[in-house]
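Give me the fold.
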Amino acid sequence: MSSTVIRSHGQGAKNQEPGARVREGEAPAEPRVEGSVLRVQDTTPAAIADSNRQVLSTQYSVHSAHSAKTVRSATPQSSLRTPQSSLLAAKKLEKSYRKGRLEVPVLKGVDFAVRPGEFVAIVGQSGSGKSTLLHLLGTLDAPDSGEIHFEGNRIDNLPASGRDVLRNKYFGMIFQFYHLLPELTMLENVLAPIMIRFGIWNYFWKRREHVERAKQLLDMVGLSHRLTHKPRELSGGEMQRTAIARALIAQPKLLLADEPTGNLDQQTGGEILAILKQLHRAQGLTILMVTHDPAIARQADRVVRLVEGKVAA
């Protein structure tokens, strides 16, 4: 049987022999890796798309491993070392923003680490850099200097495709303003990360399995009766619970929550916090939450305080 060749360092070179067809109802053949070449036993669009995604998914680990070697060889052994027990670590992070000709420093050498299974709250006054730090840790923005490591691999210098894989597969994210897609139902919003990861062709191979998991998550957050509703038909608390379900659909290793209760009343905010605490206790999920509310922060295992762009001693 002939095969399609896709190289991991750029646009794949494809041979010109016709590939075997996949019969209806039959899943594409498993790809195999030979060195830096991924070979697929058919040339259907679904198989080629699946192969490309597998190549992209290796970029996070491969690029990170290469970057880690470079850092180790270029710096003293005592410099920028990641604690072995850390899931996520920031090292000497600095970040500034410009307002016209004025440069405004936000983070000034932040050192910070989260261990697996921790629930950590970051607190600080407005402008202290809480959300900026969370965005850097989630690779939504890049630091001016310093490093960020996840599972021992440096991630702040990943290419865009590697950062996309990291956020889609390993990080779950919750934002203050929900960021739900208004044209999709609640069920479709929860499924969106899975569609992005697998692509529309391969998503439909396991559609029933994905839909069932999304329904279970919506039921867990108390929204089993809202599957077909759109965001405009929901309250703020319901939209935030949907966002939590969406963040969990890919079974992430780390949940990043930026002011998850900041746009909600006290009672609804308490309900959202209860869901996060239950996830932490029952599933051992690692959670990093930014909040301005000291009472909410005290519910976490550990509180980290930012003062003028630095972690307070």
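The chain has eight helices and 13 strands.
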